[in-house]
Design goal:
mainly alpha, three-stranded mixed β-sheet, Neurolysin, domain 3, 20 helices
């Protein structure tokens, strides 16, 4: 056994324990009894303590110094283990354990506060989360920018300033497109109830249509849809709304994009740093291209229209063209996950600016609701009507995911680049999608993105796959072309 072999054996055990922690999180959001929350917080804290100790063990540093990987993948393994180790040793074990405990507790309090429309019930525990995350950020930054240290967990080698520059480039064209579209008559909306059991049945079919392997996964319901796990156990959740089946269908397709990424990674990378998605931005590129460029295309919605008639009968939409416009209807709304493609990134920019202010100490938690409501009114032109449509709508801050939100829009940017290349690579893409066949599209993504896992840095994998330097122009051009045609601009 060489030092590299010892390092990788140890890493696989650590990764396996991390997967167990992830499964506890999945259970907490799906089937865990509500009364188990305090005990689960202790369980999560205990396993985080074990993981932190393993990740910061001095023998990892010794193996890293002695390791001599003989191939590109081995070199990437060492690079990523070293990056993780150097970050972990900066964070005190007691702090990591405290964060795990309080975020587990905060998640349950957030869900209850959201259900009760009671922001004040959530703010005390959110203050604890923010204080602990700022402490962690300061430890990681070591005198540098705290928010940059947070972003590094989700989008390595990227800073808040770089993200802000991308958003500044995107915002004017998004705002102009939004204004132009909303100045035109809105397409027909759905106006009847859709049985929620039937929604889940069609949701399962959509999952397999997009290549989700249900022998290594499952579809459940949760308050906030998510994907969890990697390798041979990758689970997704969705949600249902009796009057809005698109919420269920496109949440499912979105989460399948995440799950397909994890299921598509080279099996030899399993339970190693390369055995999961390289960043949340690249992860979102998969979920967003599955959901939007493929799932909301004219070709695929034509197929979906037929499927919905088979399941629900006549549901009041006259033909496939009308249905395409309904699926892509731009409309006022509060919820990020239900936002149309034109407005989605504006929701992310709001969150990005607020969480940067929270991490910098420029915004206090007690003022968060007012700051959110003021910013929303300024950006969208109407007032937030209730907390569950405002600052309580997302789970992310309750579980300490500061620096995560901007990766959603980075994922859209990356998806724009990938879709441009995909169309060139699969000339008859629309014909295939019209038949409900996504295999060539998802196969191209598996070959060019998914199989590599964490082998390459985020921007490098997008550059390799798309042949262009990642930037917002392909996304903006796609949005202007699509919605310009839909709304006759």
């Amino acid at each position: 056994m060489t030092a590299f072999d010892d390092l990788m054996a140890y890493q696989r055990e650590t990764s396996a324990l991390g997967q167990i922690a992830g499964r506890l999180g999945w259970d907490q959001e799906t089937v865990m009894p509500r009364g188990a929350a305090p005990q689960r917080a202790e369980e999560m804290a205990a396993i985080e303590s074990v993981l932190h100790a393993r990740r910061s063990d001095p023998k990892v540093a010794e193996w890293l110094d002695q390791a001599e990987p003989g191939c590109e993948a081995g070199q990437a393994q060492v690079r990523e283990i070293r990056r993780s180790y150097e970050r972990t040793i900066k964070v005190p074990a007691d702090l990591a354990k405290a964060i795990a405990r309080v975020t587990s507790t905060a998640q349950g309090k957030w869900a209850q506060a959201r259900a009760d429309e009671d922001v004040t019930a959530f703010l005390p525990v959110l203050e604890e989360v923010v204080a602990l995350k700022r402490e962690e950020g300061a430890a990681l930054a070591q005198g540098g920018n705290i928010y940059d240290a947070m972003v590094e967990d989700y989008e390595p080698y990227t800073t808040g300033s770089q993200i802000a520059a991308i958003f500044d480039e995107m915002r004017p064209r998004l705002v102009a497109l939004r204004a132009a579209v909303l100045d035109r008559p809105a397409p027909q909306a759905l106006e009847r109830a859709f049985n929620e059991t039937d929604q889940m049945r069609l949701s399962q079919k959509l999952a397999t249509t997009f290549g989700y392997d249900l022998t290594r996964g499952r579809v459940d319901k949760a308050v906030h849809p998510f994907s969890s796990g990697s390798g041979s156990d990758v689970r997704i959740t969705t949600r249902t709304n009796e009057t809005d089946p698109f919420n269920c269908f496109y949440s499912t397709i979105h989460e399948v994009g995440h799950a397909a990424y994890e299921q598509g990674i080279n099996p030899s990378f399993a339970l190693t740093p390369l055995g999961c998605g390289v960043s949340m931005g690249v992860h979102e590129s998969q979920s967003r291209i599955y959901e939007n460029q493929l799932g909301r295309s004219r070709a695929f919605t034509g197929w979906l229209y037929g499927q919905m008639i088979d399941v629900f009968g006549d549901f009041g939409i006259a033909d496939a063209d009308t249905f395409y416009a309904t699926v892509n209807r731009v409309h006022n709304g509060y919820i990020r996950t239900e936002a149309d493609e034109v407005q989605y990134n504006l929701h992310i920019m709001l969150r990005f600016d607020l969480e940067r202010a929270l991490m910098a100490g420029d915004l206090q938690v007690r003022d968060l609701e007012a700051a959110w409501n003021d910013r929303f009114k300024a950006d969208f032109g109407y007032a937030v009507d209730k907390p569950s449509n405002g600052c309580l709508q997302d789970v992310h801050w309750s579980v300490g995911l500061f620096g995560y939100f901007p990766t959603y829009s980075l994922g859209n940017v990356y998806a724009g680049c990938l879709y441009q290349a995909l169309r060139d690579a699969v000339p008859d893409l629309e014909k295939q999608l019209a038949a409900g066949d996504t295999s060539c599209a998802t196969g191209w993504l598996r070959e060019n993105v998914q199989q590599h896992g964490g082998l390459y840095a985020p921007r490098e994998i997008i550059r390799r796959a798309s042949g262009v330097e990642p930037g917002p122009e392909p996304l903006l051009a796609y949005l202007e072309r699509k919605f310009g045609a839909l709304y006759g601009l």
